């Protein structure tokens, strides 16, 4: 019986050790593959954080979670081909949701294009290959929450802001901003 228990305990330690070494692996081509944990140090007054997620062929894929140094969640973001594309959630330091919405991938990081470059002296046209940087934009409805829980809906069309709704009512364009209310309205350009 003692031998069986000892064998089970040794097996558990072996599984635990192999699970810890399975993170942060690269393939034969030195591309990041599988589960990764990345530590980002604090810089220029901004606090550090850690990332957890999956790499596929050196690109982030699926849900990545961002944590504070204390282990509190900051964000959950969905990546496709290394670029934000899908549901994203952001959190206040107290753990409450601050914003939820979708991002849309506009370009894929590393995608190559061929463009024509004209030499300004000779006027000769040359084909040049350029590598794109991937980026994303807000798309669809975003729910943005105050720390007290008040929700505002914002709608985006491929990164362009289209409208805003507080709770279930549209945000009035005629409502003065706090600094405008004190002075009795908007200031006109050129007149003081």
From TrEMBL:
Residues 1-22 form the signal peptide. Keywords: Signal. The keyword Signal applies. InterPro entries: MORN_2. Residues 161-176 have a biased composition (Polar residues). This is Toxin-antitoxin system YwqK family antitoxin. It comes from Chitinophaga barathri. SUPFAM superfamilies: Histone H3 K4-specific methyltransferase SET7/9 N-terminal domain. Residues 157-192 are annotated as: Disordered.
């Amino acid at each position: 019986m003692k031998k069986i228990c000892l064998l089970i305990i040794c097996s558990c330690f072996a599984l635990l050790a192999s699970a810890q070494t399975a993170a942060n692996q690269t393939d034969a081509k030195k591309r990041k593959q599988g589960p990764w944990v990345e530590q980002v140090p604090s810089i220029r007054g901004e606090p550090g954080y850690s990332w957890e997620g999956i790499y596929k062929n050196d690109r982030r894929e699926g849900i990545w979670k961002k944590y504070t140094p204390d282990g509190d969640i900051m964000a959950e973001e969905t990546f496709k081909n290394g670029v934000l594309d899908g549901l994203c959630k952001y959190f206040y330091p107290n753990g409450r949701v601050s914003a939820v919405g979708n991002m849309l991938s506009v370009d894929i990081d590393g995608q190559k294009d061929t463009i024509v470059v004209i030499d300004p002296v000779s006027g000769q046209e040359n084909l040049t290959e350029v590598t794109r940087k991937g980026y994303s934009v807000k798309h669809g409805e975003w729910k943005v929450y105050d720390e007290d829980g008040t929700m505002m809906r914002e709608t985006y069309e491929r990164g362009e802001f289209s409208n805003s709704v507080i709770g279930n009512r549209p945000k009035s364009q005629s409502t003065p901003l706090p600094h405008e209310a004190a002075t009795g309205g908007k200031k006109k350009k050129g007149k003081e």
